[in-house]
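User: Hey, quick favor. My workstation is busy. Could you predict this chain's structure for me?
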Amino acid sequence: MVGKAGIWCVKTALPKVKASESPDLVIVNGDGATASHGLGRQHAGYLRKLGADSITGGDSSFFKKDLVEALDTLPFVLRPANYPPQSPGRGWRFFNAGKARVAVVSLIGRVGFNRVHGDNPFTLLPALSERLRQETPYVIVDFHGAATAEKQAFFWHADGKVSAVIGSHGRVATSDETVLPLGTGVITDAGRTGSLDSVGGCESESKIREYITRIPDWSRDAWARPALQGVVLELDDSGKTRSIRRINVDCGTPPAAETR
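Assistant: No problem, here it is.
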């Protein structure tokens, strides 16, 4: 999700999704929730109140100091599991989902990130998945990656080792959702919750100016055509993905008070 518009979309549309889909577990990537760049502590708590059971991270997990200081006390917020063990917080946790337990894992890719560098997710996954599957057959991975080739290679590497791998970071929904031969559901990018008429959830003018001047600008949230995007997973009793389906919920026109 991205910015104030993304949070508003969760507030507006998640109850509708819960009513229509009856999900056992709601996983939200919150890496761009606060000012389109990172996640603040207050927003983490608010998203929890709005219905997010688990909030995964990415390359901006440590960009908000108040969250970094609180990560060890917020068990529902995950940072990438392939960050150093000395990092605050956890990279995976078990969550109750109906009568089952689901392991949710946050991982970050190694291609295209200049400020952060995680350990190799390809070498980490086999041992981690074996450990988690001793407790539950249901293992869902949020793979936060900048390169589609790395994501897709990781999908095939993960096939049969986890229930699903959902790509994030691109902030553009892809149409390649599928179930691989050994039962792992995958999609290169689950999309973005926030403004669709924007550049990654930010006002297009500010991002154009950034490319011209090379001065980063994450300060301007966009509000045009807000929507909630994501995927609905159905898993069978063995932990394999039975189906993966994209969703796109139009959130309508936000009240003027929300856009301030």
